[in-house]
Amino acid sequence: MGRLDGKVVIVTGGGGGVARGMTVALAKEGAELSIVELHADRGDEAKREVEKQGGRVISIACDVSDRVQVDAAVAETLERLGRIDVLVNNATGVTLSTSNLSFMDHTEADFDRILGVDVKGSFHFMQACFPHFKAQGGGKIINFSSGAGTERMAGFVAYASAKEGVRALTGVAAREWGEFGINVNVICPAALTPGMKKFVETHPDPEFKRMALGNRPIARLGDPEQDIGRVVAFLASAESDYLTGQTFWVDGGSSIHA
Fold first, then answer.
1. Counting beta carbons within 10 angstroms of the beta carbon of residue 49, is it exposed (0 to 12), middle (13 to 18) or buried (19 or more)?
2. Residue 109: exposed, middle, or buried by beta-carbon count in 10 A (0-12, 13-18, 19+)?
3. Which of 31, 85, 190, 246 could cross-link with 251 by S-S, CB 3.0 to 4.6 Å?
């Protein structure tokens, strides 16, 4: 028996990065998954990985910044899996080209793209799922933010702004939706994803690699499944029913707010 047996979870941006391990962790706990991904091939690849765990999973191509596509993805999930219990907003518009980029080198297009995916995409899915959560008496929303925002990291002005916007969305929804049994929380992860590995290896400052990989109390980057995925599974489960509006830094102590 898993903690999420019979639960249906939507994971946006589910085809890459930390989500690849996260979806496996959720499947191991018994969740049925709707993987929402801009790139259909990546979503299908993630679907095949989850299927190895024996659970039901579907893959839906969707641009989360487009409300029409979001509504269609939610409707398809309901049609094919029957319900929605958990929403994980993981999709991001940040790229290597908009990472470690000075404040003055960021463009309006950078802001439009990153805020469109990270903030508006989360907003779209939260609004689209809310009526279903309310009708069934509850649900869980797990949004993904970043230490780039909470720590105001240089080189990430658009991404940091977007991720702090996600935390604001989370807090407001937590206050408004608690009466309906809807829990809304945030994770700020530090995970050794393929994209993170490439970013660290191509960074111009040789000291950055040492700092990125080990300059934290737990001197490593997290594993997407074992470290990040298990926290997502906890927040998706009944064990987190009395938690809402909170930020969880799952980063080995890189950010300490205590």
1. middle
2. exposed
3. 190
Is the Cβ–Cβ distance between 19 and 248 less than 8 Å?
Answer: no
- Other Cβ atoms within 10 Å of 217 Cβ, number: 9
Q: Which of 133, 159, 248, 249 is catalytic?
A: 159
**Segment 36-74, tens digit of pLDDT:** 999 999 999 999 999 998 889 999 999 999 999 999 999
Is 159 a catalytic site residue?
Answer: yes
Q: CB–CB of 139/87 below 8 Å?
A: yes
Residue spans per domain, the chain: 8-250
Rounded to a whole number of angstroms, the distance between the first and last alpha carbons of the chain is: 35
What span, in angstroms and rounded, lies between the C-alpha atoms of 190 and 187?
10
Estimate to the nearest angstrom the gap between the alpha carbon of 239 and the chain centroid: 19
- Which position has the token pair 């977007």? 162
Q: CA–CA separation, 106 vs 43, rounded Å?
A: 29
Percent of the chain with pLDDT strictly greater than 90: 73
